[in-house]
Every structure is written in structure tokens, then in C-alpha cells.
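Morning run. Coffee first, then this:
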Amino acid sequence: MHLSNKCCHLLHLKHSQAMHRTVLLLLALAFAAMQSSDAFVVSPAKRALPASPLRASSVELASLLDPIKPPLESYADIWVPLFAKAQEAGLAPEAALHWGHPLAMGTVLATMATFGSYLGWQVRLGNGGDSNALTMGETIREFHPKLMTGAMFFFFLGGQGGLVLGKAQGLPFLESPHAMTAFAGLGLLALQAALPLAFESGGAAARTAHTVLGTGTMGLLFVHAGLGLQLGQTF
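And here it is:
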């Protein structure tokens, strides 16, 4: 029994260390993206700025996306001609192509994700058994994971739209800080979705990690939205 418990403890420790490394990598990717965001503002003065260590590190981190660029670009290329034809036929106005993605994702962020995070904190504060009109008859504890799952689904779906629309408008593929924070945010959302599986074995520590990481993820997603608006104003 003692040996079995020791093995379980070692496995849990290795799993925690792997998760921590993954989180740190995603946060480093997001931080480098935020530091390099001014590099994507179209300005001759900014183009003339000498390379800095922060910009160099952001380029190195962006290269982490290189292995997935070919398949994702091939996927985007399937849809780009359809958008081009729709635009030529007058079915897809320029404004819709340019701002449709940020409007849709901003709506999900400001409504589902923000309210879902609020509900998560209510659970944390001991109000999980309560309900209100917005939880549609369910308790906060029941509604929180459903709402956040829906938000994550729309974020993943919207990410595909961002890839296609960016490609259709001739943007560099997966090179902007907005793209880097998108992958960091989606990765953190996936970790968030997996953390409740450790609630029973991890206890209070796992629940605290879920709360802290969730709050940080929301902050990153708002930064991601800001970078998207900045990028949208450069072309």
C-alpha cells in the first residue's frame, strides 16, 4: 500500500511539473507577443527601429508555430477562394470580412466568457448553490462549466474563421502577436477544461489553480482582443 501511494504521488508530481512547463511556455509566448505588438503597426518610424532582444525572442517564439503552419494554411486555402467569390458577387462586404471576426469573438468574450468567469468566482466564494435568471433555472455550479464549454467552442470555431479571413485579406500567416496570443489563449482554455478532472485527487490546490489560471486566461484573452483591434487598424 505504501509503495502504491508513493507511485501515485510521483505520477501526480510529474503530471504537475509537465502542466507547469506547458503553462509557462504559453505565458511566455503571450508575453513576447504583447511586447512585440508595436512591430505590427504600419509606420516607417517603427520599421526603422533596431532589432531588440524582446523582438528577437518574440520571433523565436513565433517560430514555434512553424510546424503547424503548413496544414493550417492548407486548410485556410480551401475557404479563401469561396470568400473571394462571395466578395466579387457582393455577398461579403469588405467591412464584414475585416471586422466580422473581431465583432463575433468580442461578443463571445464580453458575454459568455466574462459571465462564465464571474460564475466561477461565485462558486469559489461558496455561492455555487445559488441560481438566477441568467443561469436558466440551474445552479451556478451547474451552469458555469456549461457556459465556459460553450465559450471555448465558439473561440475554437472563431479561431478557424480568423485564420481564413486573415489569409483572405493577405495578412502574414500566423506571424502577428494576435495569432500568438490566440494559440496561447486556446491552450490555456484547454488546460482549464482539463483541470476539473483533478479536483477530486488534487483537492483545494487544484481548485485554486483552476481559479487563478482562469483569471489569468481571461486577462490574456482581453489582451488578445486588444491586439486584434490594433492589427485591424493596420490594413
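The helical segments are 2-35, 44-47, 53-62, 69-88, 94-124, 140-168, 177-194, 199-232. Good start to the day.
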